[in-house]
Amino acid sequence: MTMAKHKISVTINGAVREAEVESRLLLVHLIREVFRMTGTHVGCDTSHCGACTVHLDGQPVKSCTVLAVQADGAKITTVEGLEQGGKLHPVQEGFHEKHGLQCGFCTPGMLMTTSALLERNKNPSEQEIREAISGNLCRCTGYVNIIKAVQYAAEKMR
Amino acid sequence: MIPAAFDYHRPATLEEAVKLLSSHGDEGKVLSGGMSLLPMLKLRLASYAHLVDIGRIPGLDYIKEEKGTLRIGAMTRQATLERSDLIRTKYPILADAVSLIADPVVRNRGTIGGNVANGDPGNDQPAIMLAVGATLVARGPKGERSIEANKFYKGLYETALARNEILTEIRIPVPPARSGGAYAKLKRKTGDFAVAAAAVQLTLNAKGAIERVAIGLTNAALTPVEASDAAKFLTGKMPDDKTIAEASKMAATKSAPSADRRGSVEYKKEMARVLTERALRKAVQRAGGK
Fold this sequence. Notes:
heterodimer, A: alpha+beta, Ubiquitin-like (UB roll), DNA polymerase, domain 1, 2 domains, five-stranded mixed β-sheet, 5 helices, B: alpha+beta, Uridine Diphospho-n-acetylenolpyruvylglucosamine Reductase, domain 2, Uridine Diphospho-n-acetylenolpyruvylglucosamine Reductase, domain 3, Enolase-like, domain 1, 3 domains, five-stranded antiparallel β-sheet, four-stranded antiparallel β-sheet, 14 strands, 33% helix, globular
């Protein structure tokens, strides 16, 4: 079966990139395999674990469950885009300072979900942080230090 | 996991979308938020040669009250519903459920239209549609038609929608005074479907007796289940403990779940009873009863 390819254009971490994609190409594969930005991870591949979370027009989404072609014209931010001018984003700094990771596999998704949370809510309660990351699974930390990392970042951003 | 190959279409209007669906018949499928469809395609549990993405069609994303009706556009994201003051303050049955659907990141993409129309009995909003007596508005080649929620669900992933019809709007009557609704759900963990869940919407009369009530059950059969015997039993009665307990028992007998990792048939039926009781109590309380 020959299927038409689609010419798409996205703005990823501030840069306009074009690609010709098959309909079935997933956004996470566009990011990792076409654009060669491997900070975004593929975990469960079934929209449960959240390791693949990126911002699509400012909203965190699971990029394993979005088609690349659906992102045509959109603004995408990946974990590579959090750092600005050589300075870590406060959530990155928080994860570093508070030891918010062990193996690090979930971290890119955690950073994207929590940075979006802090855009919306400058002073989230522990409960709100826990709810926000309930679609991002971490099998190492027990979440305690992740919460501390987000609280650290929230304070930094205020 | 990669879905089988398909062609992707992104119509700019509903007319165009209906035309595309008409020309592709059984090979075509509407793509809304994609939070159920894309995993199914990836797991190869389903395959379609043509996906028709309605995500860029303007005018399908709104929540508004008009002339005694709450109107919700089918492309309204779950996250939008969750953050809506109107929903939070006036439609607690919808507010209860939305924060229990999937997880917050999935809710940024998932839509109420997809949840209502894809015909998965594990979805939460279909039972709510039954409880609130929703009207589902569909657009097809002959224009628009309205389908009552209790005539919408036909089987597993089968609804009253024809292949070339698209759900465009959900209409819910604005509840009269002394009304209350609630959704009670048991799930093993975030992101899982319900072990059992119950949706209740009711109105009390001036004396505090139940004037109108409807009960919907999630994941209780191949389609959402309306517990109409229990509703009939409740109508005209004071919602006291004994009556609520009896009605919940009646509702649970309508539940015909299958055993799986979420539990045995017996357990799920018992949970349907417990959750119906909880939802009834909360709905009565919200309606200003005791």
